[in-house]
Amino acid sequence: MAASASSLLAAAASSSCAAISSRLPAGAPAAASVPSASRHSCASLRASPARRHRSRFIASVAPTMQPPAESRVSTVVDVDLGDRSYPIYIGAGLLDEPDLLQRHVHGKRVLVVTNTTVAPLYLEKVTWALTHNNPNVSVESVILPDGEKYKDMDTLMKVFDKAVESRLDRRCTFVALGGGVIGDMCGFAAAAFLRGVNFIQIPTTLMAQVDSSVGGKTGINHPLGKNLIGAFYQPQCVLIDTDTLNTLPDRELASGIAEVVKYGLIRDAPFFEWQEKNMSALLAREPSALAYAIKRSCENKAEVVAQDEKESGLRATLNLGHTFGHAIETGIGYGAWLHGEAVAAGTVMAADMSHRLGWIDESIRKRVVDILEQAKLPITPPETMTVEKFKSIMAVDKKVADGLLRLILLKGPLGSCVFTGEYDRKALDETLHAFSNN
Amino acid sequence: MAASASSLLAAAASSSCAAISSRLPAGAPAAASVPSASRHSCASLRASPARRHRSRFIASVAPTMQPPAESRVSTVVDVDLGDRSYPIYIGAGLLDEPDLLQRHVHGKRVLVVTNTTVAPLYLEKVTWALTHNNPNVSVESVILPDGEKYKDMDTLMKVFDKAVESRLDRRCTFVALGGGVIGDMCGFAAAAFLRGVNFIQIPTTLMAQVDSSVGGKTGINHPLGKNLIGAFYQPQCVLIDTDTLNTLPDRELASGIAEVVKYGLIRDAPFFEWQEKNMSALLAREPSALAYAIKRSCENKAEVVAQDEKESGLRATLNLGHTFGHAIETGIGYGAWLHGEAVAAGTVMAADMSHRLGWIDESIRKRVVDILEQAKLPITPPETMTVEKFKSIMAVDKKVADGLLRLILLKGPLGSCVFTGEYDRKALDETLHAFSNN
């Protein structure tokens, strides 16, 4: 299993940049300072003149770029999935551009799914953007309670209730306005309502913008495990208005950074090095730093998803630290920790185990701990997580196959990982004992 | 809308037989008496020598055929959906052939989903078939309450609970053992559990064997409407052991016949004529008559589904009578009438409306009433269904698009229909008033 997973990863890596393209709106400046991440993150970008041209396009979307006068879209990342392909728009003030949203609405009826925190901030603006100069469209909304602990079947039924009561038909569009929980629930509701209607993602947290809104994983939690019920279902577009981060609490911002760090560790060493240098800028919400981190994260995610939509191998690597992290979230009760907080502690555990196996140098393990500490994220699980609790929850992880728990572990130089069930069980035991009580 | 739907149907009809093939197991007799339905049901079967050859294969699977010594599979109908294609096995005693089932089981863990009526009859036998000479496979089961009124989210959660508690992983297989309700719920559970696991359909009612187990429509009811929450999700195979009909109550048998009649009316006039001649044989459970009705129904369904899996047009025609029928089921409470009973009354209403529109002759309308009466099915809705009740429930039907209710109506000679929103509203009103109280 490990061998085939490893060779899949190796094969995939060699063509990983062919799967996406980044476009600039007309009129965008063609030259700007180029972060090293863009130049070196993907070997195949340097493989041919055509790819080098595409590379320049990516490179030109630099943090210091000014948006063109006619649109605030600073970057478009395409997720290439054949007839299910879609664009990710990234920029400041995109909710002030009605046309962007409206071009992806199908039918005349829209249901906005949001929560009690986000609705007072952005629901009116989104409704305006959907209906401005567009009197044919009518907008309904359903406002769910906020938090991971509501990502359950009872709350999901409220979305179906609203959709049925509003007599929405197959030609309607669901819009997810909020963080990862809203995106996951709205997406699954869109996948299942009338066996599938259109939907649009408007992520308003860094976590959702860099990770959960991209790639079509939707679902809800089961009391015994995270995301155990759901669907692969792709949106019509993802619209990332970076201005929405202005209202995001610090703790939520840090949570999103945990996933940004992940991309560097699993496949993009220059991006990780960029983060080491720019973490204080990210925490200070420096707009160009945030925009670059979001863009590069979406590009990494789009590349992986385009090659392995249904997670037969490569895509699983996006779950570095998540098996430990999900166990923490389930073990201490959904919502007690933010997702990225649990992932941060889980990433440290995965790095620790990789080092115990002799797969990475101590220096890499230390850099993982350092960058997450710098981001003010937890680097150990909560004390209530016992070894036994970890083991029993990890046994129902989706990456178990025929009883064997497969993990994403770091292996080799910075930016390299494997997805494998072939590891010494002793290392896993030692890591669990080092990080939790008996 | 109507024009494009009609032309879609016309275009589809001209190639409708290319989409499926019927295979015979090795050793099956090559010649037998050929029912007229097989020879004339599809114009394109006569179009080329290659197709004629395929036609002979279909034709040779006649009701009087003896199964070959080594297998009781009398017919295999392939549902052609690219990489999601699968076989439908039809024959007597197929549950006594462990290999048939086992070749479609993925992984080592199986969850059989069944109900309190079917479990005492067939669960032991199916468990034996899954595990005979196959000690690596372990079988769990979940036994749901029986009936349409339990096709809801609460009951569905029992399937997820069992799957999670049993620590099933992505390489497991769900098996639906029962009628349409079990197939729809197990299929949706398989689609959503861990975002999709393998599943197998073992339909044990005529309704499920001729219709609901084929084509991948899965889902549950919402209190306000039937099948409003679900997924398109195809099984690995459908295994129809016609012996299971021996335990089916008469009322359930008649319910299934309503769907058999439907195939004749919408696209297969010779099959309808065969039914008119053989209805008493079907009601008397004459094995060869039942086997032929099942085979020809599956072939019709497979042809339609292969051309229009996601119901963008053609597939909707399989819902003749269902918009009225679903309204009856929802209006009087799920389970009060069997699905086929509601469809029968709905089919009479659709024929009545088609006649009022001048789209079919009175003789066809009368033949519809006669054949359903002969099958001992209701030909009028229950008295509690008022015009208002029909209208309010039909407004949330899945075939509403941008507020316009599209219907499947008969039009032209026997065996022809349209799926259209362009009809005189007065005819619909008149039909509703003719069949229900104000």
UniProtKB/TrEMBL annotation, chains A, B:
GO molecular function: 3-dehydroquinate synthase activity; metal ion binding
UniProt superkingdom: Eukaryota
Record domain 3-dehydroquinate synthase C-terminal: where: 256-400
Stated family: Belongs to the sugar phosphate cyclases superfamily. Dehydroquinate synthase family.
EC primary class: lyase
One biological process term in Gene Ontology: amino acid biosynthetic process
Keywords: Amino-acid biosynthesis, Aromatic amino acid biosynthesis, Lyase, Metal-binding, NAD
Domain 3-dehydroquinate synthase N-terminal: 142-254
Assigned EC number: 4.2.3.4
Protein name (record): 3-dehydroquinate synthase, chloroplastic
Reactions it catalyzes: 7-phospho-2-dehydro-3-deoxy-D-arabino-heptonate = 3-dehydroquinate + phosphate
